[in-house]
Amino acid sequence: MRDHVRVVVQGQGRRSRRSGLAQVLWAAGELAVTAGVVVLLLVVHQVWWTNRQALHAAHAQVRELESEWSSAPASVEPPSADPSAGDEAVSGGDRPSEGSPEGSSEESPEGSSRGTRSGPAAKTPPREGTYGILRIPRLGVAVPVAQGVDKRSVLDKGYAGHYPGTAQPGAGGNFALAGHRNTHGEPFRYINRLKAGDELIVDVKGKRYVYVVGQTLGETTERDTGVIAPVPRSVVKPEAGYGEPGAYITLTTCTPEYSSKYRLVVWGTLKG
């Protein structure tokens, strides 16, 4: 009678465990790749597609406004001797005070408060929606101007938003605007490149107002409401800004790029 030989295969359970671990790691890797692709698509949508959509729509709105105004071209009047007396936005800036902001001085502002205007300055709030066009020749920018600084209804459409409570175009005080620096048309992306003497042109129906860049503030907090006050002057950095009444324009946007931590500010005065 033959003896039965029993063969014991060692390591089979170990190999099985290794195989199971490999399958788990493979599945985890596939999930990580899938998640990465989804995140990449979201970034592409946010940074590229929404930007493309908003830019296209903003350009179409500029053309629509120009077409609407074409039947009533601007009529140039003699210079006036005295002007009429939403992340990119500055928080709490809807109702700037009428007096000089904290930290203002008696020093004369750069430039003149007297300006050349095509037609009288607007004295009443503009209609809802877009009502003007901001042109920045140095940057090749032409962007619709809308009332308010709400992200969804104004800034995310690629428009420049007019801070409620600030001056009307061409009027005495501070005509203050906010705009995106990145994504959603990014109309203010390169305003950090503006230099003293560059022109900022604001067109409304039948009127054109030309401002000249005088000062820039590279960084301030989102709560620095002094930058959009009637006499603009930073309350965070009091050395930046103006000290006398005039006709000003202010552009605000986020800084650094792809961040909303701080605000970048450009100021100009009505050309005279």
Secondary structure elements and pairings:
Elements: H1 12-69, E1 130-136, E2 141-147, E3 160-162, E4 173-178, E5 199-204, E6 207-220, E7 247-255, E8 262-270
Parallel strand pairs: 2-3, 4-7
Antiparallel strand pairs: 1-2, 1-5, 3-4, 5-6, 6-8, 7-8
Task: Give short descriptive properties of this protein.
272 residues, alpha+beta, Sortase, Chain: A, eight-stranded mixed barrel, 1 helix, elongated
Describe this structure as you would to a colleague.
- This protein has 272 residues and is α+β, with helices and mostly antiparallel strands.
- It has a single domain (67-270), classed as Beta Barrel (Sortase, Chain: A), CATH 2.40.260.
- 21% of the residues lie in helices and 22% in strands.
- The protein has one helix spanning 12-69, and strands spanning 130-136, 141-147, 160-162, 173-178, 199-204, 207-220, 247-255, 262-270.
- The protein has an 8-stranded mixed barrel.
- A hairpin with a 2-residue loop joins strand 5 (199-204) and strand 6.
- The longest helix is centred in the first third of the chain and has 58 residues, at 12-69.
- The model is unreliable at 75-85 and 93-116 (pLDDT under 50).
